[in-house]
Write a sequence for this structure.
């Protein structure tokens, strides 16, 4: 079976996209239709165990076992190559993940297109912490609407000046320097499955910025289609899992009997609140 | 001896800098004053050879031998931590080097300062190739001066709007998205000596953009002070070296007798020109 | 304050050791005596926050916060260089951690010493799983004692033959190929704090082989001395923490009321047992 | 076109092999039959140039240009997964290349097979340098033949004892520790094209040990089949190229007139000899 990637493009934000260009493995032996690319994980792991090819059901169980127990190396054997179109401020977060291979459009070689990300709603600064992560949409007063419109209009003004400078012979690498960070760029981005799951951990987190979370969601959907066993197990064992520290563990039982028993047990109010949030999940 | 880093700051571009914050080793045993941090290279290499501590002169010879013969692993044992202030479009090139450890100022947490890189001269687009690399300063017609001034003024306008949005409660992570790529950012950047030399290879090249070359030059100066033997050997054996391909090698002798002997021997005009440039160095 | 590393050597197994040769930072500013190398973590993180230098107490809180919330990049700014003496079969596990820089004694250049690891007790193959991990010491029958003695004596026979081959002019790189994997080797091993904590996660695990666990313990002791805040927080938040999957979370409450309520809820007996083990910790 | 890998196995040494299990891309669009996997390099590079799909001939020229000019990132987009069977002392050299993903047979889980590498000829220790690299076969005196036979026979003795210990219930992870380093192991090894070429640089070098050179040769043959343009360009521009340092460059012309003109110009005899060797190639 050949993995078909013809419709593997997901639109993201107002003008962006994520497309799965290629993957390894691309050819799946018959009898592994449920595993799809997950097949290569079982295949690599069987080398470690000196084992023979097994039934599809046994391979599924093996993949789930490996993921749960953090035997990560077989998951590095599955490779993805994506084509992304994304604003530069999102690219700057994406590129921090150093295990990827990247080819990005170069503003030194090529004149960039006049496509800018324009948020549909403005998010307010979070009040609960200084950490800049947003929460609710902000109330759009007339004043704010005016400022926002002006702000977005500067994209076009700047792009015109950029264009004029290029037309007048200024080096593209220099003309581009005032282009704003919400201009769209494109890149090929190659990642293995293990490191992509780690990427999703960090970038699907509610602490991550909304815009990169949208890209992370699209990436998860695309790999969920070609690695169904791994992604389901990842959701089950990790995404919705909760970790209790040693101190928290000790308090679980007493908290169930008395929801005030934990008071004063944590060094900071933040840690106390985190504990209470976890207890709500039980 | 303690490596003194008090005056290890070099100004770069109009408002940037590179500062060597720390290095490993920081304490140098007496008798290795000429080696300084290069001492750690010889020390690590002696493990491979199962060898004893040697005289300073022998260690210098060893470091030079290791560098010339591309025994790279001992050079990974020397670490540098830099503090850089640089425009975002330069940071975007710097960050492509994945062996560094990075902590950058976060526009999600912190309101960015209104400092923008303003080039002293405008470089023209190169005509010899499409590669965008620049060459000579462009002739500044009145028209071009006007456009350029306007372009630079947009920095201030945009910054004011950014500031207003933040004051009106818009999340900083969102307010910042239109800030131009010539705004200055700051980061801590940790790199080992081997990978830093590779960085210099690529970023001191005449094909690299002028602005990152300035940072590469500053970095080379700073490490030249703490790793004098390595950096001198690197300049001698690599920076000004020339590599001849098999085909070129065969043509050297005949070219010396007849400077037209190479005509038609290369698949492209570009390769032919590269050969002629190399022959001028003989 | 200069970090003193004079007595930073710990004996491991019968003939091995771990020694902390150097670290970055090595000089600690006054007022950060409690933080020691942890100081560099707070310093790097303050770049991200655009923040000022703070009190020692605030820096300690910051380091703990960063660790708990997996803000890992500042922990990459602390570097360690170790000297290890270890058997080759342990080195083969150590070297799998690819973020380290390594210089190892070379059997091509140097004649190896006749030092072999001889386990004090023989561990039995685990019966609960096929995974080879050991458990209790095996009962030493006379027969087994005899086999074991013979096995250990082969080390000396082989070493003598190796020595003879080298003396007769055989290339060292070839003469060494029959040397057993319990022969001791030495290496310099450079690692950052973040990746070292990840190494400890994997190699202090009860699933790791006893011999590498001994090296992991020694490494943890050594960095605990120079990074006291990080290592204490790491123990508190991670080493003794427990993670519940989504399914497990749902079962915690019912299990407390009825310890048979989970039966049939897990796809494998292994997962069921893991759940019960976690519940015992509450 | 699907890349056919059915006969992609090459025997290496007496009992080893290298097999190309999979690669990315595996499906090649029609019109790129000459490029095969090299197609993906051109495709990724066109993102940087913002360019359109071009003719096969233009893509071939692009790949050659990229390789010659060390634009390495598009070459990271091609991935290979190999299955290797190799002695442990070769694996120990292979594993030093940290950009690979690896799954190796585990002696903790699996009883290892009694297959040992037995060199067909014994190489002598090199006399020209202490570096252990070999040269000519050694003269096999009766004495040496006897020692060598004894040495090889120890493999079987040790294996029997290993087997007995395992049969008597000793943990496999412990029983294996005296197994010699010429025992064969197997692994899956995933590498990208750029890093594989770098691997070949180092491991096809005459300074590398004969046994790993044999594996490097097999790897080169296998990728030469699926990446014909890249491997041909790599051979042309790099394998047989020669680099002259600044000092050497200055001496080329005078040496051609007078082969004694270089005497006393180099700091060591070794460097002088290296220069003379290079001049012979002209």
């Amino acid at each position: 079976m050949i993995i078909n990637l013809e419709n593997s493009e997901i639109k993201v934000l107002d003008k962006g996209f994520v497309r799965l260009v290629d993957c390894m493995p691309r050819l799946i032996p018959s009898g592994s239709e449920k595993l799809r690319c997950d097949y290569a994980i079982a295949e690599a792991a069987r080398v470690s165990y000196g084992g023979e090819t097994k039934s599809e059901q046994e391979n599924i169980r093996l993949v789930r076992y490996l993921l749960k127990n953090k035997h990560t190396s077989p998951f590095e054997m599955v490779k993805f190559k994506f084509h992304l179109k994304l604003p530069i401020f999102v690219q700057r977060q994406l590129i921090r993940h150093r295990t990827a291979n990247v080819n990005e459009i170069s503003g030194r070689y090529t004149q960039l297109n006049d496509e800018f990300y324009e948020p549909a709603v403005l998010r307010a600064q979070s009040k609960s912490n200084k950490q800049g992560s947003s929460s609710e949409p902000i109330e759009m007063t007339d004043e704010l609407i005016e400022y926002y419109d002006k702000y977005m209009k500067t994209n076009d003004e700047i792009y015109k000046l950029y264009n004029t400078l290029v037309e007048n012979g200024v080096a593209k690498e220099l003309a581009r320097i005032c282009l704003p960070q919400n201009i769209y760029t494109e890149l090929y981005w190659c990642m293995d499955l293990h490191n992509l799951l780690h990427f999703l951990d960090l970038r699907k987190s509610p602490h991550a910025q909304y815009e990169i979370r949208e890209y992370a969601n699209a990436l998860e959907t695309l790999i969920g289609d070609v690695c169904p066993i791994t992604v389901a197990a990842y959701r089950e064992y990790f995404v919705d899992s909760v970790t209790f520290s040693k101190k928290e563990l000790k308090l679980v039982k007493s908290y169930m009997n008395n929801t005030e028993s934990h008071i004063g047990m944590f060094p900071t109010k933040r840690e106390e609140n985190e504990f209470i949030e976890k207890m709500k999940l039980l």
